[in-house]
Each structure stands twice: as structure tokens, then as C-alpha cells.
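Would you be willing to look carefully at the protein I have copied below?

:::
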Amino acid sequence: MQPQNSREIRLKHRAVGLPSASDFELTETPVPTPHEGQVLVRNSYISVDPYMRGRMTEQKSYVPPFQIGEPLTGGAIGQVVASKSASFAPGDCVQSMYGWREWYACDAREVQKIDPTLGPIQSYLGALGMTGLTAYAGLLVIAQLKHGDRVFVSAASGAVGAIACQIAKAKGCYVVGSVGSEAKAAYLTQELGVDQAINYKTTDGLTNAVAAAFPDGIDVYFDNVGGAHLQAALANMRQFGRIAACGMIAQYNATEPLPGPNNLGNIIGLRLSIRGFLVGDHLGLHSQFLGDMARWHGEGKMKWRETISNGIESAPDAFIGLFKGEHIGKVLVRVGPDEAVK
């Protein structure tokens, strides 16, 4: 039976430093009625991602900031409950950017149908979705990955990093990942087949640890962190090395500008390439990406974990936990049923 109200998370305050629960508020709104050309969707899973931190601040960026008093948005997987569009039928599984809420109605052109036979529906928010495509495009297009490359990945047990590590291994590369705990290090080496893992919280100097792991230097660095990790990578790159700049989570909660690496001169002498990218620029790779992921998964070369919280009310804590290193793999919030909605 369809409820009368839908719960959603709204932005209450602009965060300063690490976000807190008080920056969010849980509210209720009537479940909408779809109009002609629209669908009514009940969300099953929503995604929380580090890039959303930038949207909590009033600043110019590649995506507009969240607005005070309005529901936040983000990736979501749900199921159509009612449709006034010929393109969708009740029970269809769809992907959208209408996250952080339980129910929504929108123009049918704003959702994309997914195939639940390829994997669990929530994997379309992680390994089979934009998260996996980010790793895929970053390595294969931005970093021009080649067989035999020596690859370093920071935040390597996270949603993007873990997929990047496995893509590099599937391509015949030597791979080292940086993580923040021994449990995460074991996950990389024992479950994902990564050659070495560096626990940056216990190592005696990150640059020296990276040097020990790469005695012949780094060909490709997949950067999710920035800061000290970027400095360590720059100190150990090989000539004509490539750096794919995916994220800079080390500075997302900074309240004042942080100092940059002091060895940027290495870019010149080593003729390095550093290129930032957004996954939205590479959506044309989606079919190729899904084909490769299905093949690698079938060959046992691609695995993934998810850290799942339950209930829309848990979304703020799940989001804050991203910046405390409390997760392995993709962070999701289950907000509705997995099975078809009646």
C-alpha cells in the first residue's frame, strides 16, 4: 500500500569544515501524483559521494550548490510505481539523480531504465554505474593505461579506487594501493589481488613507502586524495608518467587553503601529464564499460563491496562517514524495498 508521505533529507546549514548531523534535516512531504509524461518512483537505494561536500558550500563549481531548505540530490536506484509515459511501466527499475528522498515524480526523460539481470540493482550506483565508469575512463582514457604499467591508486579500498585497482590488474599491470587501515590493506591484497597495499596511517613517511613499493617508479597514478599522496606520487613518477586527477578528498573539508605539493617541478623534468576529469564527459563509453565489467566479473577479475546503511534518516551519518574512512567500497543507503513495488 502506497504511503501518503515521503521522507527526504534537506540542507539546513552550509557546512563549515567536516559536516555534522545538524547541517541536515529530515522532513516529510506528500507523495506526489505523476502528471502526463511523468513517472512516480519509489527509491530503493541512494548514493552518498564525496563530491557532494562541495555542493554544500556556496561556491562556483562544475555543479551548482545545494540550496538551503531544499532536498539534496544524488544518484538513486528505484522502481516505477505509476507511469503516465509509454516508455516505462510499473515495476521497471530506473536510475536517476533524485536521491536523498523516498519517493519522487519526474519527467520520464529524467530517469534511465536499468537491467536488473546484470547484477543487484544497487550495483548500478557503484561498480556498474558512474562509480565504476569513473575508474574505467580515468585509467583507460585519461591515463592511457598500458599493459605492464606500474600503477599507484590512492583511497584504493573506496568505491572508485577498488575498481581502478582491479581494472589495472585485469590489464596486466603491477598495482599498489594506499589505504588507511590494516583491514583495508588485507581487502586489497587478499580479496582483490592487488600486489601491495600501503597503510598511510602507520607508514614511516608516505614518500619513502611509495618509493619502496615502486623501486622502478610509477607510470600511472590514479589520484583520489591529493595532498601528501600527490606529493609522494610526484616524487616517484617515471619519465612521461601520467596522473589522472579524479578527486582531492584530503582538502574537501578544509576551512582555509592548504599548501600544495612542493615538488611540482618534477612535472617538467619528468615530462609528466596531469589531467583532471569528470565522468560525465565519458558517458559514451558506457556500453563498452558494461561489456568489459561483465567479462571481468565472469572471469573472477572484478569484485566489489558495499557499505549499506538502512533508512533515509541514516543518510547524513553515512555521508559524514565518508570523510572519516569508516567504509570499504561503495557507500549506499537503503531507503526502500529491493523487490518490485506493487
In short: The longest strand covers residues 38-47. The mean pLDDT is 94. The two ends are 7 Å apart (CA to CA). Residues 29 and 58 are 26 Å apart (CA to CA).
